[in-house]
Structures are given as structure tokens and as C-alpha cells.
Design a protein that fits this description.
Shape: elongated
Largest sheet: 5 strands, antiparallel
Radius of gyration: 27 Å
Helix content: 25-40%
Number of strands: 7
Order of helices and strands: EEEEEHEEH
Structural class: alpha+beta
Length: about 140
């Protein structure tokens, strides 16, 4: 990846499991027959203005903090998925004849006199998740 001198980039340090902003202070370009290579020196966010070569940091580097967030969320989602798959595998192995938990259907009550007035409503789906329900689509399907 190519960076600009003066650009702030974000280093996700592997061992410390933290993200730090670093300032690109130097770019060295090496031209060879087989192509160009770039080496960057960055300044760390400390009182001594420590400068190190970027490739010496044991880190994954990102251009933006949003890219860092996306990477971290993807990693967390993958970890969660592995945990869930493992739990399901253990359940199947140790409790093979156990029935799945019953899924309870929540009934929504709309008073007769309000049915024509409401276009949409918010529904609690559980676990802090809320959804918007389009009443007109329920009317079209004859549910209400």
C-alpha cells in the first residue's frame, strides 16, 4: 500500500491488541529492474516523537479508522460464528436426542378502531432488536 508523507494512518498492533494512529514522516523509494518498493518511517504518538520503520511494527495498517472498525467487526463476527458452531457441535455430540427450543410467536394486538389509522409500527424482536412492521402489507395478505 502506498501512503503520503504527512498522512495519519492506523496501526493495529498484533501483540498488544490495540490501535494507534501513526504519522507518515518519510517515504523511501527503491527502484529496481523488477519494480519499485516503498519503505515508510512513521512517528509514534508519544512524548519523544519516536520514529520507526512501518514494516518493523508488528501491525496491520489501515488508511482510515472506519477500515479499522470494519476489520475488527469482521474479526469479532468470525470469532462469534466459530463459538456458535462449536457450541452446536458439542450440543449434537452430547445431547443428540434433545429437541430444539420452541420458538414462541408473539401476537400483536391492534384495537379495531386503530387498524385503519396505523400505517406502520415498531415490533420488539428480542435481544434489543426492533423491527418496523408495515401494516398495509399485512392487510394485503389478509392477516389483519
Amino acid at each position: 500500500m502506498k501512503y503520503n508523507v504527512g498522512q495519519t494512518i492506523f496501526a493495529m498492533l498484533k501483540k498488544q491488541k490495540q490501535v494507534i494512529p501513526v504519522l507518515v514522516v518519510e517515504e523511501l523509494t527503491r527502484k529496481r529492474v523488477d519494480g519499485e518498493s516503498f519503505t515508510y518511517t512513521v512517528q509514534l504518538p508519544d512524548n519523544k516523537n519516536t520514529q520507526v520503520q512501518l514494516d518493523k511494527l508488528d501491525a496491520v495498517v489501515f488508511d482510515t479508522i472506519d477500515a479499522v472498525k470494519e476489520s475488527m467487526l469482521n474479526t469479532a463476527a468470525q470469532t462469534i460464528e466459530k463459538i456458535i458452531v462449536r457450541a452446536e457441535k458439542i450440543k449434537t455430540e452430547f445431547f443428540p436426542h434433545q429437541q430444539e427450543e420452541a420458538h414462541y410467536q408473539k401476537e400483536v394486538y391492534i384495537p379495531e378502531n386503530d387498524k385503519g389509522k396505523i400505517d406502520s409500527m415498531q415490533v420488539d424482536l428480542g435481544n434489543g432488536v426492533k423491527g418496523k412492521l408495515d401494516i398495509s402489507s399485512l392487510k394485503q395478505q389478509g392477516i389483519i
